[in-house]
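User: Could you go from structure to sequence for me? I need the amino acid at each position, not a summary. Structure tokens:
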């Protein structure tokens, strides 16, 4: 399992599935999802089975103070091109706006860069989901695109935003949105970084100082 500052991300177990049914029956939780209808237990069991067999996704249950409070993970993991889509939700509404979403996302991003060897992590979010957009920006996700009138929700069209986080050290040819970002022309990282003489400053998402596998006792390398 993965430890954030306050959350724990662990494997999803079959007894967790009724919680997903309960959360997705709530229109407020469902409002910002790709789903169009509540899910029943059989549908959740099918999803659980499929994601267990799908090597291009990694999903976690979110625990907070010993309680299962939401779900998160990576989808569309593309190992060749080193990118993946990240997603999260806090199903327990009473816990919104307490910093858990940011903690979860920072923990996932650290894991994606440090363990999955990703170069880019992207997410899709409805433009009117101001809470989510604000939280994602605080973890260093930058706006990369806006797809207008993409989804029909509540009787109107909604725009979909693409947001992105790039690996902090960029790597050869890597990109960053920091002050030492590579030239747009070459798309290459500065020579000193390529030569391994310096690292890019870690961006704002690094708010979960010791996240990674729980109990290793090792601080994450800087
Ligand atoms: C989106 C979600 C994951 C965020 O998690 P969270 O724990 O509620 O978020 P956090 O508390 O970490 O951060 C929310 C931030 O947005 C701010 N915020 C809340 N409502 C806001 C609004 N209407 N406009 C702008 N900012 C807002 C909060 O004040 C907080 O910022 P702060 O820490 O600077 O004060 C969670 O609310 C959720 O699961 N919502 C329902 C499902 C969903 O939208 N999933 C995401 C799909 S992309």
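Assistant: Here is the amino acid at each position, in order:
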């Amino acid at each position: 399992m993965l430890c954030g500052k306050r959350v724990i991300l662990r494997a999803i177990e079959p007894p967790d599935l009724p919680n997903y049914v309960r959360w997705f029956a709530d229109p407020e939780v469902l409002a910002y999802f790709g789903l169009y209808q509540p899910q029943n237990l059989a549908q959740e069991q099918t999803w659980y089975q499929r994601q267990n067999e799908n090597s291009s996704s990694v999903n976690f249950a979110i625990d907070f103070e010993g309680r299962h409070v939401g779900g998160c993970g990576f989808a569309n993991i593309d190992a060749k091109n080193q990118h993946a889509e990240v997603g999260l939700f806090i199903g327990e509404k009473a816990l919104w706006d307490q910093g858990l979403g940011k903690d979860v996302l920072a923990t996932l991003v650290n894991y994606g860069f440090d363990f999955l060897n990703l170069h880019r992590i992207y997410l899709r979010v409805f433009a009117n989901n101001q809470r989510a957009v604000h939280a994602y920006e605080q973890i260093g996700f930058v706006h990369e695109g806006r797809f207008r009138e993409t989804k029909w929700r509540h009787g109107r069209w909604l725009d979909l935003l693409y947001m992105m986080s790039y690996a902090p050290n960029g790597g050869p040819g890597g990109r960053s949105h920091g002050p030492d970002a590579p030239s747009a022309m070459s798309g290459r990282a500065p020579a000193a970084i390529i030569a391994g003489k310096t690292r890019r400053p870690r961006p704002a998402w690094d708010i979960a100082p010791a996240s990674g596998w729980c109990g290793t006792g090792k601080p994450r390398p800087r």
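One structural detail worth keeping in mind: The helical segments are 17-24, 27-30, 41-53, 100-114, 130-138, 191-194.
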